[in-house]
Amino acid sequence: MTTEGFADDGTMLKDFAQLDLAQEMLTSEQTKPWQTGHTARMLFKKADFRMVLISMEKGSVLKEHHADGTISVQVLKGSIRFTAQGETHTLQANSLAALGASIKHEVEALEESAFLLTIAWPDAEKLQTMKHREYGTQKLRQSE
């Protein structure tokens, strides 16, 4: 069943969205407690792009993982520890970091925090040919 404005896979049918990030953060806060110590809300999704609001309680960790596309992390509230390629960076509100595709990274909330994650999603053809640095999805491993 298609919800108005969205395809069945959650992709936005319109090409424009205006968001109130303060309101989006408040909406996330109202869903507490978060079972895992964090929550993620997809704010905008297209075939080649994702925008996700991630809210984290102090001490919560997004264990090492990767994204198949180039990412940016813009801290909106609080501060986080962002670790990638053996280096740890403390990012505070109003700071921004970017990371290339398929690079492992970990995020820890040093205090109650929220950040905007954007992902430049590769197309299906590029995704199939990407080098996943030995930790791609199972489907991709099987096709190599």
Strand content: 35-45%
- The quaternary structure here is single chain
Low-confidence runs (pLDDT<50, min 5 residues)? 134-144
**Order of helices and strands, N to C?**
HEEEEEEEEEHH
Sequence of strands across the biggest β-sheet? 1-2-9-4-7
Terminal-residue CA separation = 35 Å
What's the gyration radius in Å?
A: 16 Å
Number of domains: 1
Can you name the CATH architecture?
Sandwich
The DSSP helix count reads 3
The level of helicity is 10-25%
CATH class: Mainly Beta
User: What's the CATH H-level homologous superfamily?
Assistant: Jelly Rolls
Overall spatial form: globular
Query: What's the β-strand tally?
Result: 9
Q: Summarize the main sheet.
A: 5 strands, antiparallel
Structural class: mainly beta
* CATH fold node name: Jelly Rolls
Keywords for this structure?
mainly beta; 4-stranded antiparallel beta sheet; 3 helices; Jelly Rolls; 144 residues
Topology of this protein?
Blueprint lengths: L20 H9 L8 E9 L2 E8 L4 E5 L4 E8 L1 E6 L2 E6 L3 E4 L5 E5 L3 E8 L3 H6 L8 H6 L1
Antiparallel strand pairs: 1-2, 2-9, 3-8, 4-7, 4-9, 5-6, 5-8
Explain the overall architecture.
- This protein has helices spanning 21-29, 124-129, 138-143, and strands at 38-46, 49-56, 61-65, 70-77, 79-84, 87-92, 96-99, 105-109, 113-120.
- The protein has 3 helices and 9 strands; from the N terminus they run αβββββββββαα.
- It has a 5-stranded antiparallel beta sheet, with helices on one face. A 4-stranded antiparallel beta sheet has the order 3-8-5-6, with no helix packed on it.
- It has a single domain, classed as Sandwich (Jelly Rolls).
- It has 144 residues and is mostly beta strands.
- Helix content is 15%, strand content 41%.
- It is globular and about 35 Å long.
